[in-house]
Amino acid sequence: MTNIVKIDFGSIDPEHGEPARDRIVSGDPKFRTWNCDEAEGGIYAGIWEATPGKWRIAYDEWEFCHILSGRSIITEEGGDERHVEAGDSFVLRPGFRGTWEVLETTRKEYVIRL
Predict the structure, then answer these.
(1) Which residue ranges make up each domain of the chain?
(2) Distances (CA, A) of 89 to 12, 23, 49
(3) Contact criterion met (CB below 8 Å) for 109 and 35
(4) Would you tell me how many other CB atoms lie within 10 Å of the CB of residue 28?
């Protein structure tokens, strides 16, 4: 057994999903998630992809994100909008509330800590 886990989704079937209907603001966004690793204590790492649309988000977890492709706008309630695209990295902290709008199908690497 190795303690290095490659984030490689080529051999993993994605989980398919979408935002809850009552959270959708516009469009018909669809998700694909390749959860590549998880550890005790609620830690997850993998790749997530979303098609165009806009929905409300609410974070109770901590998440590091690195955008691999696409373009999105993340807007915090009462705050500024952040345009993110390939190469951008950021953290969404517990308590974040706002919207995620995918302008161009967006794919990100993530690490989540519950």
Answers:
(1) 25-113
(2) 24, 25, 15
(3) no
(4) 10
Residue given tokens 């018909």 in the structure block: 28
What is the three-state SS of the chain? CCCCCCCCCCCCCCEEECCCHHHEEEECCCEEEEEEEEECCCEEEEEEEECCEEEEEECCCEEEEEEEEEEEEEEECCCCEEEEECCCEEEECCCCEEEEEEEEEEEEEEEEEC
**pLDDT of the chain, 114 residues: tens digit per residue:** 678 888 887 889 999 999 999 999 999 999 999 999 999 999 999 999 999 999 999 999 999 999 999 999 999 999 999 999 999 999 999 999 999 999 999 999 999 999
State pTM to two decimals: 0.93
Q: Was domain 25-113 assigned CATH 3.40.50.300?
A: no
What span, in angstroms and rounded, lies between the C-alpha atoms of 59 and 36?
21
